Amino acid sequence: MSNQLTRSVRVTLSLEKAFRLFTEKIDLWWPPGHRRFDESEIILEPRVGGRFLEKKRSGEEIMHGEVIHCTPPSRITYTWYPGALTKPTEVDVRFSDMGDHTLVEICHSEGESQMGEVWNERAQKFERAWGEVLSAFVAQAEQF
Predict the structure, then answer these.
(1) What angle is formed at CA 106 by the lines to CA 50 and CA 17, rounded to 5 degrees?
(2) Element (H or E) spanning 10, and its range?
(3) Per DSSP, which regions of 56-134 are E strands?
Protein backbone atom coordinates (compact mmCIF):
# COMPACT_ATOMS: atom_id res chain seq x y z
CA MET A 1 0.00 0.00 0.00
CA SER A 2 1.26 3.47 -0.81
CA ASN A 3 2.21 6.01 1.80
CA GLN A 4 -0.59 8.34 2.80
CA LEU A 5 -1.68 11.01 5.23
CA THR A 6 -5.20 11.67 6.44
CA ARG A 7 -6.93 14.71 7.87
CA SER A 8 -10.56 15.34 8.72
CA VAL A 9 -12.79 18.25 9.68
CA ARG A 10 -16.44 18.65 10.61
CA VAL A 11 -18.65 21.34 9.16
CA THR A 12 -22.21 22.25 10.07
CA LEU A 13 -23.39 21.99 6.48
CA SER A 14 -25.49 19.35 4.76
CA LEU A 15 -23.62 16.75 2.75
CA GLU A 16 -24.64 18.47 -0.51
CA LYS A 17 -23.60 21.94 0.63
CA ALA A 18 -20.25 20.71 1.97
CA PHE A 19 -19.49 18.97 -1.34
CA ARG A 20 -20.56 22.02 -3.33
CA LEU A 21 -18.44 24.36 -1.20
CA PHE A 22 -15.39 22.11 -1.55
CA THR A 23 -15.75 21.75 -5.31
CA GLU A 24 -17.81 24.36 -7.16
CA LYS A 25 -17.12 27.15 -4.65
CA ILE A 26 -13.45 26.35 -3.97
CA ASP A 27 -12.30 29.79 -5.10
CA LEU A 28 -14.22 31.36 -2.17
CA TRP A 29 -12.02 29.72 0.42
CA TRP A 30 -8.78 28.39 -1.12
CA PRO A 31 -6.10 30.34 0.82
CA PRO A 32 -4.10 33.05 -1.00
CA GLY A 33 -0.88 31.56 0.40
CA HIS A 34 -1.63 28.33 -1.46
CA ARG A 35 -2.00 29.90 -4.87
CA ARG A 36 0.76 30.33 -7.42
CA PHE A 37 -0.47 33.76 -8.52
CA ASP A 38 -1.98 36.86 -6.92
CA GLU A 39 -5.59 37.51 -7.92
CA SER A 40 -6.08 34.10 -9.48
CA GLU A 41 -9.16 31.92 -9.66
CA ILE A 42 -9.12 28.32 -8.38
CA ILE A 43 -11.39 25.93 -10.28
CA LEU A 44 -12.25 22.33 -9.43
CA GLU A 45 -14.60 20.72 -11.95
CA PRO A 46 -16.57 18.02 -10.06
CA ARG A 47 -16.70 15.33 -12.75
CA VAL A 48 -14.39 12.57 -13.95
CA GLY A 49 -11.88 14.20 -16.28
CA GLY A 50 -12.56 17.57 -14.65
CA ARG A 51 -9.65 19.88 -14.04
CA PHE A 52 -8.23 21.31 -10.84
CA LEU A 53 -6.62 24.49 -12.07
CA GLU A 54 -5.55 27.98 -11.25
CA LYS A 55 -6.33 30.72 -13.72
CA LYS A 56 -4.58 34.08 -13.87
CA ARG A 57 -6.46 37.22 -14.88
CA SER A 58 -4.49 37.13 -18.16
CA GLY A 59 -6.13 33.79 -18.93
CA GLU A 60 -3.00 31.70 -18.32
CA GLU A 61 -3.84 28.44 -16.58
CA ILE A 62 -1.81 26.10 -14.43
CA MET A 63 -3.08 22.59 -14.03
CA HIS A 64 -2.86 21.34 -10.44
CA GLY A 65 -4.60 18.02 -11.09
CA GLU A 66 -7.36 16.05 -12.76
CA VAL A 67 -10.48 14.45 -11.27
CA ILE A 68 -10.24 10.67 -11.51
CA HIS A 69 -13.32 9.72 -9.45
CA CYS A 70 -16.43 11.70 -8.58
CA THR A 71 -19.64 10.57 -6.91
CA PRO A 72 -21.39 13.73 -5.69
CA PRO A 73 -22.04 14.52 -2.92
CA SER A 74 -19.98 11.85 -1.16
CA ARG A 75 -16.58 11.64 -2.86
CA ILE A 76 -14.12 13.30 -5.21
CA THR A 77 -10.62 12.04 -6.02
CA TYR A 78 -8.07 13.96 -8.02
CA THR A 79 -4.42 13.83 -8.97
CA TRP A 80 -2.19 16.55 -7.48
CA TYR A 81 0.94 17.81 -9.22
CA PRO A 82 2.25 20.45 -6.76
CA GLY A 83 4.98 18.95 -4.60
CA ALA A 84 5.25 15.84 -6.79
CA LEU A 85 8.44 14.71 -8.49
CA THR A 86 7.46 13.48 -11.95
CA LYS A 87 4.05 11.86 -11.55
CA PRO A 88 1.24 13.27 -9.40
CA THR A 89 0.19 12.35 -5.91
CA GLU A 90 -3.48 11.60 -5.26
CA VAL A 91 -6.09 13.29 -3.06
CA ASP A 92 -9.28 11.46 -2.06
CA VAL A 93 -11.95 13.56 -0.34
CA ARG A 94 -14.94 11.86 1.27
CA PHE A 95 -18.03 13.53 2.70
CA SER A 96 -20.11 11.68 5.31
CA ASP A 97 -23.49 12.79 6.66
CA MET A 98 -23.26 12.69 10.45
CA GLY A 99 -26.72 14.13 11.17
CA ASP A 100 -26.01 17.61 12.51
CA HIS A 101 -22.76 17.97 10.56
CA THR A 102 -20.76 16.60 7.66
CA LEU A 103 -17.44 14.87 8.18
CA VAL A 104 -14.91 15.73 5.46
CA GLU A 105 -11.99 13.30 5.27
CA ILE A 106 -8.90 13.88 3.15
CA CYS A 107 -6.55 11.06 2.24
CA HIS A 108 -3.48 12.34 0.39
CA SER A 109 -1.34 9.50 -0.92
CA GLU A 110 1.65 8.84 -3.13
CA GLY A 111 -0.65 7.80 -5.95
CA GLU A 112 1.40 7.29 -9.12
CA SER A 113 4.25 9.50 -7.88
CA GLN A 114 6.28 6.60 -6.47
CA MET A 115 8.19 8.98 -4.22
CA GLY A 116 9.46 6.21 -1.98
CA GLU A 117 11.63 7.66 0.78
CA VAL A 118 10.99 11.23 -0.42
CA TRP A 119 7.31 10.81 0.54
CA ASN A 120 7.98 11.32 4.27
CA GLU A 121 9.62 14.70 3.64
CA ARG A 122 6.88 15.79 1.23
CA ALA A 123 4.14 14.45 3.50
CA GLN A 124 5.26 16.83 6.27
CA LYS A 125 4.78 19.75 3.87
CA PHE A 126 1.44 18.36 2.67
CA GLU A 127 0.35 17.91 6.31
CA ARG A 128 1.05 21.58 7.14
CA ALA A 129 -0.62 22.72 3.92
CA TRP A 130 -3.74 20.65 4.57
CA GLY A 131 -3.98 22.17 8.04
CA GLU A 132 -4.11 25.66 6.52
CA VAL A 133 -6.36 24.70 3.60
CA LEU A 134 -8.89 22.83 5.74
CA SER A 135 -8.97 25.65 8.31
CA ALA A 136 -9.92 28.03 5.49
CA PHE A 137 -12.59 25.56 4.32
CA VAL A 138 -14.10 25.33 7.82
CA ALA A 139 -14.06 29.12 8.23
CA GLN A 140 -15.90 29.56 4.91
CA ALA A 141 -18.37 26.78 5.83
CA GLU A 142 -19.41 28.82 8.88
CA GLN A 143 -20.51 31.61 6.51
CA PHE A 144 -21.92 29.48 3.70
Answers:
(1) 65
(2) strand 4-11
(3) 61-71, 75-80, 89-97, 102-109
Cβ count near 106 (within 10 Å):
20
H/E element, 9:
strand 4-11
Q: Can you list the alpha helix ranges (DSSP code H) found in the chain? A: 15-22, 26-29, 118-141
Residue 22 has pLDDT above 90, yes or no: yes
Angle, alpha carbons 88-93-96 (nearest 5°): 170
Q: Is this structure's pTM higher than 0.85? A: yes
Own/partner contacts of 35-41, CB < 8 Å, gap of 24 or more, are: 36/62, 37/62
- The answer to whether residues 79 and 68 touch, using CB atoms and an 8 Å cutoff, is yes
